[in-house]
Every structure is written in structure tokens, then in C-alpha cells.
Write a structure and sequence with these properties.
By secondary structure, the chain is mainly α. It contains seven helices and no strands.
């Protein structure tokens, strides 16, 4: 691997921190999107109740997982990032068929937020909604980005 592939661009004059490359910018945007998604989830819980809050939260959960996938693997294609996010969401939901998430959720708020506690089949559909929404956004962003 050449040294040039690792170095990042510096602003004019060579001083200051390196300017973010495409990957750095993607990670920064993914981190901002993750924060916005968490805020949207908290906002949804504050203004909605019942099925709207529950199933909207499911879609936002998968959207958050998608932003974390992009944060960790910024060169992922939109379909791959959405697929991984959907697979993770489904895996967590199916894990709820065992007693493990319920036991962990009883002892930890963080575990309850991440793993849930009770299997609910309709959640699987709403995870698809979240993955599709994220895929559409990533695809639109990828189309607007100038070629490298």
C-alpha cells in the first residue's frame, strides 16, 4: 500500500487539521444521521403513543442500525448497508424467542433498549420499512455525489 493512499488532504497552506476525505465525510454524516435518528425516536415517543410510537420506533431502530453500518463501513453500497441493518434487526428480534434478551432487559435499561424483551412478529415488517427508507436515502445521496 502506498503512503499516498493513507494521507489525507490538507487545507491550502498546509496548516490545520486534514480535510475530511470522502470516507471521513461519509462517517461524519453517518454520525450526524445517527444522532438525528435517536432524536427522532425520542421525539416520536414524546408525541405519539400506541402502535404509532411502537412501530415507528421499530423502523427508526433499523434506520439507526443502518447509520451505524455506514459509520463502520462507509464504502458499503446502499443495498448492502440496508441489508446488514435489516439482518441485524431481524436477528435481534428472533433472539427474543429465547429467554436471553428478557433476562438481560430485566437487569439493564441499555439491554432493554438494544435487545428488547418480547418477540412481536409485526416488528419484522417495520424493520423492512426502516431498511427501505434508509436505502432510499443512501441511494439518493450516492446519486447526488460527484464521481471520484
Amino acid at each position: 500500500m502506498s503512503d499516498r493512499a493513507v494521507r489525507t488532504a490538507r487545507p491550502a497552506g498546509g496548516s490545520g487539521p486534514p480535510a475530511p476525505d470522502g470516507t471521513g465525510r461519509t462517517r461524519l454524516l453517518a454520525a450526524a444521521a445517527a444522532l438525528l435518528t435517536v432524536g427522532a425516536g425520542l421525539g416520536l415517543r414524546a408525541v405519539a403513543t400506541g402502535d404509532v410510537a411502537k412501530y415507528g420506533g421499530d423502523a427508526l431502530y433499523t434506520l439507526l442500525v443502518l447509520t451505524l453500518v455506514v459509520l463502520l463501513a462507509p464504502r458499503s453500497t446502499p443495498v448492502r448497508a440496508a441489508g446488514v441493518a435489516l439482518a441485524v434487526s431481524w436477528a435481534v428480534e428472533l433472539l427474543q424467542l429465547t429467554g436471553l434478551p428478557a433476562a438481560l432487559s430485566a437487569r439493564s435499561t441499555a439491554a432493554r433498549l438494544v435487545l428488547g424483551s418480547t418477540f412481536n412478529a409485526p416488528d419484522l415488517f417495520w424493520y423492512v420499512v426502516g431498511a427501505c427508507a434508509g436505502w432510499l436515502v443512501l441511494r439518493a445521496v450516492a446519486r447526488r455525489r460527484p464521481p471520484a
